[in-house]
Fold this sequence. Notes:
Shape: globular
Largest sheet: 7 strands, parallel
Strand content: 15-25%
Distance between the termini: 33 Å
Helix content: 25-40%
Number of helices: 23
Amino acid sequence: MDFVKLRGVGERRAKDLQKIGINTTEELIRYFPRAYLDMTNRVSIRDVYHNDMALIACTLVSVEPVRYTGRNKMVRALLEQGRDNFTAVWFNMPYIAQKLKPGEYLFYGRVQNYYDRISLVNPSFEPLEKNTRLKGLVPVYSLRGSLTQRVLRDLIAEALKTEQITSVIPAELIQKYKLAPLREAFRAVHLPETQTQMLNAAERIALEEYFTLISAFKLIKGDKNELRLNRYTVTEREVAQFEKRFPFTFTAGQQAAVRAVYDNLTGPTRMNRLLQGDVGSGKTAVALTGIFMAVKSGFQAVYLSPTEVLAAQNFELLKKIFPEHRVGYLAGASTAKEKREIKGALERGEIDILCGTHAVLQGDVRFKNLAFCVCDEQHRFGVSQRNALSEKGEDPDVLVMSATPIPRTLSLIFYGDLDVTTITEKPKERQEISTSVIPSYKYADMLAYIRREVRAGKQAYFVCSKIDDDEGQVTSVTELYEELKGKLFDVRFALLHGRMRDREKTEIMEAFKRGEYDCLVSTTVIEVGVDVPNATIMVIYNAERFGLSQLHQLRGRVGRGSEKSYCFLLVGSESDTATERLNILKNTNDGFKLAEKDLELRGSGDFFGTRQSGKFLNDIKNLRYTTEVIFAAKKLSDEAFERRLNFEEIKKAAMQKYESLKDVVLN
């Protein structure tokens, strides 16, 4: 149902709703609260300790004009509660000033108490009317434009009356497992009477969502347990000899992974394996050993990389490790002549190993006898892309790799068609990376330290999440590049971002690796696989905007050599969750622990990156539920499929919602 049919939705309000991604009543009722206020827990400002979160009823006296300090913008309001005076401040949210008028308000936020100067930092707020309807648990939503909490609550309450809410889970299973009606769950999430009611409702909605999602995975992936066609003749002794080509001894984890691959390739069914390991755990060496097993047995192999920067790096490595074999390179930036020659040689069997990017997936790329596929940093490729790669050979064996540790909960469910091998150790020569959260007043000291390190021959990364500025809320990479060149005028800077041409990105990365630049200012294009052993410093701006797993990936770009390395996290705006997450990262170098914590703090949506998936699982990110819900959903989906309960209805609902799933995998 179109929301314009709801009472109170005019043209202006419709545009405001569209700004937060709401176009229908269904999307409106799926816009879940980001928090809840317990209206029985209002406090006096004089009773609150430093760093406490507090709900305070007070009077807004005045609002100062927006202050501009460098890249930052600050709004400051004067508040009163009885005889007590204090302030509220908002950083990089200048639009707040237009929403505040003198009067009675409820404010909710973190209290800062420095030298008896009390402030609420980035608090949420709403007018406190004399005949207020705010009682018990009150939902708080993210807002934009002219929307207010009260308006959004009223619209959602109206939508709940009109929207048809039906469950995809078969009625037989709903009765068997005594599941609550879905309509009641939606109402309880938006209009809860108790904390327990709200939590139970959130788990019921999450159960429905994961049931649909897991069912979509089943439909897309199908049965992958296929009998082997390609017979490998490589011996264990030959594999052991090949491992000596590397300038290090394989860890126990690498040896176990190689054994698993060898047993798979010499077994009765074809391999479809996920190799996951933390940053620097040596997955590439395992993949290259698998490639050796294929080419030694007389087959062709392909190594697929997500970016040209990484593909070029892997191409050089393959030529070094396989000097006796013919290695080809195919990427979007390859010339027309190069592409013709490579494709012809590949089809004639004159190339043993092909290294490339998405260009390898084109229909006119044909192999003579492809038997082994490596998909590096698989989260950048969709299911359909992996399938397209597999179709270029007669049931080739597939090894997909991920340096983003995937929580056990998710890997068991969403990679149910893959055998999962995990490498937990890191090479012994690698030192742990020291991580620090840098406050704004120490920013100049940090830059001075980096200048000294650069003069001593080290290199550094500066990473932003944006290419261009978005109303001052996020540091833009182009702006930062110019700023740093001005502040560190004697340092050689390079700029790298995703809008550059692939060849240009490759050239800049190679020049940085050769030491022609001291510092690289970049977006997250350097997140995956880039290996510059001399780079020992990683600076991440607006770190609060990244998930733990992505921050860990970025941090993993340093510490690639034997030198001590450092990661500096800069925060643009503080919140409870951001502070907690960054402190976890500061104190933990174990990517698997971070992945589990990220799942707990942010929900599974963080592992289905929004870059690939848009709103994929994004609408339930605010719901509070345990990971047991995911296992319960899998059990329900398994039973529904086994008994063929409402199969056509499930198929229609799952594929309608998650049709793009074929192009999206775990992040």
